Amino acid sequence: MELITPDFGLLFWMTLAFGIVFFVLAKFAFPVINGMLKKREEEINASLENAKHIHEEMEKMQERNKQILAQAREEYDKMIAEGRQAHDAYIDEAKKRANEEKERMVETAKEAIEHEKMAAVTEVKNQIADISIKVAEKILGKELSSDKEQLDYINRLLQEIEERNPKA
Amino acid sequence: MRYDFIKKNNIKHFILTLYFLISFICFTPLMSYAENSSQSKELEEAEERLEKVEESFDAGELIFDHILDSYDWHICTWKGKHISIYLPIIVYSEGELYCFSSKHFHHDHQYVVKDKNGDDVVFEIPSEGKYEGKVVRIMSDGSEKRPLDISITKTVCGLLISCTLLIIIFMIVAKSYRRNEERAPKGLQALIEPLVIYVRDDIARPNIGKDYEKYLPYLLTVFFFIIFNNFLGLIPFFPFGANITGNISVTAVLALFTFCITTFTGKKHYYQDIFNTPGVPWWLKFPLPLMPVIEVVGCFIKPFVLAVRLFANITAGHIVVLGFICMIFILGEMSAAAGGAMSVLSVILAIFVDCLEMLVAYIQAYVFTLLSAIYFGMAAKEEEH
Hints:
The complex is a heterodimer of chains A (168) and B (385).
Chain A (H helix, E strand, L loop, with lengths): L7 H133 L6 H18 L4
Chain B lengths: L1 H7 L2 H17 L1 H10 L2 H17 L1 H9 L4 E7 L2 E6 L1 E6 L2 E6 L2 H4 L2 E5 L5 E5 L11 E3 L5 E2 L2 E2 L4 H26 L8 H21 L3 H23 L13 H18 L2 H8 L14 H45 L1 H45 L5
Antiparallel strand pairs in B: 1-2, 3-4, 3-9, 5-6, 6-7, 7-8
Helix pairs in contact in B: 5-12, 7-9, 8-9, 8-13, 9-13, 10-12, 10-13, 12-13
């Protein structure tokens, strides 16, 4: 059967052709292709490794950022709290001071009023004394022999008035 | 008259006549030849026409014409005329090389040249006998002698075309790898690359082990050679379609390469396993070297099986596809309606088988490469790990 009998001519040509194909491809094509594939594979692996590394780094950084943020928030809160405290303290202080001032001013005013009152009372006393003298002079119709006697007399009268009327 | 029956286009008579004629031609070739010379010209013409019709009938001949090798490449038959490419015949006989076109055999029965002594040298392609369809030299005593025949036959021609294409394709791919360095593959490169990686990672590396890089170029060459020729064999148009991987000589050479590489790269451990197989009782080796004999025979059977498997698978696929196509014509000659109906079914079946063949084309390339890799793995194995 021709079908299953190897033919010499074909064996010859096949050996030659396949030999040449094998030689050419093994020498010029496959080393290049395999070399490049290997190189690319290594590059991809390196890139992946690198990406992983970067990812880790980023995660670390994110963690740090979070920490920093938390710290900042804490500080902020603290500052706000401190500010509020300072504010409150300041207001308290101001209020206290204003109160003190007010009190002092009231005190001063009271003193001044007292003073004025005393002065006015003294003035009134003196005037009343003058008027009393004049009234007494007029009532008595006569001048007392000496001023000393007059004054004693008047003081006595005034004491009597005060005893009768202590509120004045 | 038979001639008239055809003219009337009476199918019944026509078929009857053809049956008659086929049996006539088949069983009494010499008689019909003798009769032809004495009969009228009209009858001769009629017979010639009928012979042409009869040719399209013979599915077996058509299929084997495709499967087997030939000295010309038959492209198609147009209006009863064969359109073929006549390939060169190269023979070496009695110390002299003869080179001539196979066209000579289509004009005349024989081809006669003068040798260096001025004597006639007669070549012939006998239509029967031991050397049927092969170029033989008719010696002076009338006996046939087969010369050393290295003609560029159809298969050789197809082989040379596919090898050239293979080299061109891989040169282009290698070039694009050089130019396209460190970039994603594209074009032809992207088509080849997954296959290269597949052969490397799924065939070579797991079966051979750490030495795989040494064998990788051969495995890749074999894989691409087989898959490429398998696919080209499925294309039914001229520069392709030669039955290359479905030819035992081609697969035999491939298997021989695998055998040689296995044998010559075999390490100590490989031969130790053959001649002193471990784990086998001593009495299977010592007085009668039963195991070594089996192992040595096995070494030769392995490549033989490789060759036969590839050849048989591809040939069978081609026969089935052609069989389905031939059914159209066989039924068509019986009745036009049957042929028409069959053509639809046949084309569907042929497409199905063609798809199957594409799968087979890949699987056979894979199996051949895989088994080669396994044999290399055995050869390259170091001491027990």
